[in-house]
Amino acid sequence: MRPHRCTAFVALSAVLVLACPFRALADDIAYQVPDAETWDPPSAQRLATIESAAAANGWAAVTPPLRAAAMSAYAKGRFEAAGDWLHAYRWAALLSEPEDHFLSGWIDAIVRAQVNYPGVLNAYTPSQEPIGLRMSPALQAWVLGHPAFSEEFFANVKSVDCLPNVFALLDGLYRRGPGKFERYSSLALAIAVVYDVVPPPIWPHYQVSATSLPRRLPNPAVTYERLIGEDSAGRTYHRMSQLRADELKFVVDVAAPASELFWSESNVPYPLDQFEQTYFMIKYRDDRAATYAGMTWSGSPYTLQAILEEGGICVDEAYFACEAGKARGVPTLLFSGSGQDGRHAWFGFLDGEHQWRLDAGRYAEQRLITGTALDPQTWTHISDHELQFLSERFRALPTYRESHVYEEFAQDFLSAGDAASAAAAARTAVNYERRNVDAWEFLIQANARLGLEASSQEAVLREASLAFTPKYPDLEASYTNRVCQSLRARGESSLASYEERGLADRLQGDRSDLAIGQAAAILARSISTQSFGEQIGTYNAIIAQYGHGAGTLFFDEIVEGFAEHLAMVHMKPQAREAVERAREALEVQPGTQVAMDMDKLLERLQD
């Protein structure tokens, strides 16, 4: 990590910014960056003049010259300088963006991501003022003068992050002490991108009533001060100043209040190298697991103390272990997944070697396929490849930093309508780091805008698929499926079907969950394009090829949906037959969770 660069603090007047946030500079006071300065990163003196110009005329006035400086450094091949000028430009563009304009785009993003759950939009009455007003002049000067923080910020910020709230949260934490903020800026960033919106009602899991556990994140200052205090006292298992924001967000997403977290430090005895044992501290309640009603904790408050005293089922064990880990500054994830006979919950944590252990409490005999966990920044499920990326920590490598800067330039070129430059920058980005998914996406978008013929675009998709084969099968599957979509669009349906089935066959061993996903897509296409007889034939073929010994996920993804589809078109006898065929193929054992699911489905299918 490069050392922080200090800048002279310029006292920016909020009154001046309010009075003229978007006024263009007159010709006689036009702000510009001398070309000679773009050979190097912006100096402290230059940053001070930028801040002065923004104070007098608004951040919008300095945005074009900063972009010009970034492009000049990029054209010269001055990689470090280009990255720093680009980040200065991106800060200026963000700080000058009108709040109503930002929120319009943000709402579109959360709708696309399907995280517009109840409560997430309630508190917003946007103005036309720039969102930079949410960040004090002192913090504006600080972020411009700390390139390492800028790199981390722009590498982590997502389209679903509500930046006006992120800025306000960062500013509130900065006001608690600039020195403390500088040491723990990654922690502050993690809190800001997690606490910017209220969490969804399914967090931290859905098997507890809202009465027993209110879905509320704590006061951000409480989390910040608690973790800094515990870190300073040496009671955290990881140093809070040495983890990145993309790791710390799995520490700050606590559902338990501070009092319970302090309690767990005294009552959970396991050190980090034995932390998996925390899961097994909770006595398993077979009586609760026996019925669906018993699987939801209700009535008494859902506290760590109560879980330890009363016992629980697997999801309670996982929750207890996760919260105890977060109390000690350990990034943790709560997983749920489908196995042979039912569903299970376990947890993952960052161990002492900075490797993610993603199978703590995961029983091998359950033959669990894979698990899902929530990303507390986006409140969406974390993809399989993102979990592997977390374990590999490649985003801390210099090669990724270079790749990311070229990716940022590709994004900017695309926004400016320069598809050729965007394609060149994105190609350089993926050459530096093949795992840079965003760079692949910008390359694909740029090629589409350049009007490349379908076969050439398919070649890039195949290249991307190969880049992630065999280590990241979900990405391999995603890019291969996009090739198949393109093939179908140009009339090559037989070849597309052949490639889809080949992919499903390759995935059936270690990643049968992805194979089931492929099979579900094949069945969905059959439902939309074929006769009922052909649909049943496709379903039976999928049962024969993928169903034997499959389990709960196959029931969820294939059997239940197809049976209910037949019932909706008044074919309940055929629907019951489809379920019974699946029961035989899946080798369902009586008394298991999947057996109960099948019985309930058959009840719904009775005439």
Q: Keywords for this structure?
A:
607 residues, two-stranded antiparallel sheet, 28 helices, disordered N terminus, mainly alpha, single chain, 3 domains, globular, C8orf32 fold
Q: Mean of the pLDDT scores?
A: 88
CATH-defined topology of the largest domain: C8orf32 fold
List low-pLDDT spans. Answer: 1-29, 364-368
- Second CATH tier, the architecture of the largest domain: Roll
Q: Note the main sheet.
A: 4 strands, antiparallel
* CATH classification class of the largest domain: Alpha Beta
> Which strand-content bin applies to the residues?
under 5%
Count of distinct strands:
6
Helix content: 55-70%
From the N-terminal CA to the C-terminal CA, the straight-line distance is: 68 Å
Total domains, how many? 3
Rg from alpha-carbon coordinates: 27 Å
Q: How would you sum up this structure, described in words?
A:
This protein has helices at about 15-20, 45-55, 60-75, 80-95, 100-110, 135-145, 145-155, 165-175, 180-185, 185-195, 220-230, 245-250, 260-265, 285-290, 305-310, 315-325, 385-390, 400-415, 420-430, 435-450, 455-465, 475-490, 495-505, 510-530, 530-545, 550-570, 570-585, 595-605; strands at about 330-340, 345-350, 355-360, 370, 375, 380. The chain has about 600 residues and is mainly alpha-helical. The protein folds into 3 domains: about 15-185, no CATH class; about 220-390, C8orf32 fold (Roll), CATH 3.10.620; about 520-605. The strands form 2 sheets. The chain has a 4-stranded antiparallel sheet with strand order 3-2-1-4, sandwiched between helices. Strands 5-6 form a two-stranded antiparallel ribbon. Residues about 1-30 and about 365-370 have low confidence and may be disordered.
